Amino acid sequence: MDTKDTSRTLPISPHQQNERAENERHPYAGSVPPGSSSTISMTTSDYFKAPVRRRFAELPILACSFLSGMVDSTMFAAFRTFALMQTGNTIFLALGASGLDTRRPYGWLHSFLSLVCFTLGAIFFSRLNILLAPAHQRRTLAFSFSIQSVFIFAAAALVQSGWVDGTVPPVHVDEEEFNQLLAIALLSFQASGQMLATFTLNYGELSTVVVTGLLCDLWRDPALFAPLSKNPKRNRRAAGFVLMLVGAIAGGWISKALVNVAASLWIAGGLKTVITVAWCFWPAEAEKVDSSPV
């Protein structure tokens, strides 16, 4: 009795041939294909974790110098205190402690609260940078500046609604002065975030707050009169000072024209939002290729 050879290859039906050809065209069939949601989310995560390119990254920081002048002139016009210039707040606090500031019996409280909230903001944003390290990633900068934007918008909304008095010149009524404390806290807390960004991006020469140190470093520069292309640090310092001055003038003009600081705060929040979006799309730092022999 003859037996059939069962080891020979069985014929493949046309349906099986089509299925095999389909699998060869799509090798990820039965697994997670490259275009799936998990792969897209992985790509998005990698995108926002990429460190930003430092070239031209001083432009958003210079914009922060303009915002510093606008916010501080606005704060002083309405609340007689500062969000960023903590040296001035320290002097105001000392005047209140010595009893010399008799025209503003609670002025020292404004300055004290600004100092405390600025300190808390510095602690918060510095720990945020550590948590999302390295701090010069797209996600870290964008998240930090988005928080700053929200805080400015919140202060603007409080003034716009009338819950906080933002009249220029200010009306010194005890109840209204106490209501102003919430806006002062919001603006001072967020202010430290942009200052930390200058150190994150290694632009220590470009202070968005301390004009005294900026001017001192500018004038003592041995290459002060070098061509523009030869001394970028000098260029940043000079631009930072001019932009801060222009921002302060702009904030003062807007507040004076509208007899209120709400518009200046909305503009400041909008500009900081633009910076937030810019960080999301900022070019990534080029990866260093290891050319050493294996």
- How can the largest sheet be summarized? none
Provide mean pLDDT, rounded: 83
Task: Detail the poorly predicted runs.
Answer: 3-7, 25-39, 289-294
The residue fraction in helices comes out at 55-70%
Strand content: under 5%
Helix-strand sequence: HHHHHHHHHH
Rg of Cα set:
29 Å
Q: Number of DSSP helices?
A: 10
Number of strands: 0
Choose one word for the global shape: globular
Distance from N terminus to C terminus (CA atoms, Å) equals 65 Å
Helix-strand makeup class: mainly alpha
Oligomeric status of the shown chains?
single chain
Topology summary:
Blueprint: H1 14-25, H2 37-49, H3 58-79, H4 86-98, H5 107-131, H6 138-161, H7 174-200, H8 211-219, H9 232-258, H10 262-280
Describe this structure in words.
The chain has ten helices and no strands. Mean pLDDT is 83; it is low at 3-7, 25-39 and 289-294. It has helices spanning 14-25, 37-49, 58-79, 86-98, 107-131, 138-161, 174-200, 211-219, 232-258, 262-280. The protein is 65% helix and 0% strand. Helix 3 packs antiparallel against helix 7, helix 3 (58-79) runs parallel beside helix 9 (232-258) and helix 4 (86-98) packs antiparallel against helix 5. It has 294 residues and is an all-alpha fold. 36% of the residues are buried.
